[in-house]
Amino acid sequence: MTEIDARSVRITLGSSLPEPDESTRRMITSGRSSLAFILGDEACRYRLLAKSINWDRILIAYRDCTTVGYAAFKHHRRGPFSPGIGPFLHEFGRFRGALRYLLFAITEYREWYYGFYLYGLHVIKHARHQGIASALLEATFDQARLAGHDRVELEVHSKNQRARRLYTRQGFIQARTTPLNWLGRLLPFPAVISMRRSLAPLPGTARK
């Protein structure tokens, strides 16, 4: 567990919790809105993903006992979600469910290119601009170092100026812009910017 003292915010690895509540699950599964054409609206994403959360890939920010944000990450081909095909078949039917599951698997596979990948970062609206996103990022950097990685990488929508400014302040630099990659030729993905931040390794760790 990583704790941040600033502003009485506590950052905790999800796997250290006895059982995260439903509101936390709903917050985490509400992400990936850019994949709404595959995963549906927030209620649908909850039904598809809530039972397959990998809590060792989730950092949760608490103020007192209230969840105020989270960061999700991926490394060693394991991210925050590992749904099977079953929920997709149940939600959409045999043909459409199989197709949507295949598309979701393709998007997940594409991100295996990265070593340690920031999969998602979210802070609830009334808790923004209070340093919580920065605290979550610092805790994410710690997780990357512990896993033996010397950098963190992410993708951000090219038009999301607010997020780009946050990542730049936290030391991320632009690696490349992907206006239309091979996946974008088939699916309605927006242009994204790949960013990376180098990390000083912890003593006694080696890159994996």
Folded structure, characterized:
The longest helix is centred in the middle third of the chain and has 17 residues, at 94-110. This protein has helices spanning 22-29, 36-39, 42-49, 86-92, 94-110, 132-146, 161-169, and strands at 2-3, 9-13, 58-63, 66-75, 116-123, 151-157, 173-178, 192-198. It has a single domain (2-198), classed as Aminopeptidase, CATH 3.40.630. Helix 4 (86-92) crosses helix 5. The strands form two sheets. Strands 1-2-3-4-5 form a five-stranded antiparallel beta sheet, with helices on both faces. With 208 residues, it is of the alpha+beta class.
Brief overview:
With about 210 residues, this protein is an alpha+beta fold. It is built from seven helices and eight strands, in the order ββαααββααβαβαββ. It has one domain: Gcn5-related N-acetyltransferase (GNAT) (Aminopeptidase, 3-Layer(aba) Sandwich), CATH 3.40.630.
